[in-house]
Amino acid sequence: MEQIKILAYITAYEDNKAVKNCVEALKNQSFPINKIFIIDNSQIEPVLLSDYNNIIIEHHPENIGIGAGLNIALSFAQAQDYDFLWAFDQDSVPASDCLEILLEAYQRLSTQYKIAIIAPTAIDIKTNTVIEGAVFTKYRFIGCKHTNQVNFYECDSPITSGSLISIDKAKTISPPRADLFIDGIDLDYGLRFKQKGYSNLIITKAIMQHNFGNPLTVNFLSKKLYIHKYSALRHYYICRNHTYLDIKYSQGWYRFISLRHRIKYLIYTIAKIVLFDTKYKIVKIWACLVGTFHGLRIL
Q: Cys bridge to 161: 39, 64, 89, 267, which one at CB 3.0-4.6 A?
């Protein structure tokens, strides 16, 4: 494994502390990373890492988003003959043995699977719950049920953060969709690998902590629910991109069922905003409505 070349990649946006925590975790991996590549979309608080070596920072204050950043990083990795791109959001912290476990699993399982992405188990540090990958079932993406009873399991689309992407496999499909901007890029990219005949695996013993938004805990019908409070911009892209992707990948009659599901999601999301959000309710509701409409328009 000593000759494997790893390029780590971080999408950064207005949070120097989070970026430094992620970089520290990458620097402390038991299997060494060759270089860290950062796309910094910050305008107010640009990334400053003058004390670190082997880091490339490319500033984009215009904010090119996650999809376009991944494209740049993948192109760099291909041009520099890296074997893997290890992709991260800034608010992720992999355990010190995470990369080593992923690479050992990749080598062990490559005799059985044509692996495109191998990913760790992502733990939401605020709720102590697993952030699931996704599978596409007939008319929508749903969470892939996590279990610690096995060493690994397949899914269609691991979350972007923590995904170790094979550069050889990445060369065989079109790159992540830059136009999706900040949401659903992982769903589309992972599923396209699957449609090409590759496998995407999650390794249960490889652990990564991830800060998944700012959840609000509520009790509803005697059940504890986590309500994620998003900005209007995030609501727009969730509604737009998931409407587009769900219906795009549905076939035949299921496209109608997918449309019905997206309308139900829209109503449910608006209800949550009305009941639990405290700021910018009208703007967020409008973002959901316009996002859903635009998702249908680009089909």
A: 89
Domains and CATH numbers, the chain: 6-210 (3.90.550.60), 215-297 (no CATH)
Angle 254-276/232-249 helices, nearest 10 degrees? 160
Q: Which residues contact 155 (CB under 8 A, 6 or more apart)?
A: 132, 133, 134, 135, 144, 190, 200, 201, 202
Strands 152-155 and 84-89: unpaired
| pLDDT, tens digit, 9 for 90 and up, residues 247-272 | 999 999 999 999 999 999 999 999 99
Global pTM reads 0.95
Per-residue pLDDT tens digits for 8-24: 999 999 999 999 999 99
Give every CB contact of residue 238 below 8 A, 6+ residues apart in sequence. Answer: 183, 184, 230, 291
Amino acid at 53: N
Structure tokens at 121: 């188990």
Q: What is the pLDDT of residue 214?
A: 72
Spatial contact of 156 and 134, defined as CB atoms under 8 Å apart: yes
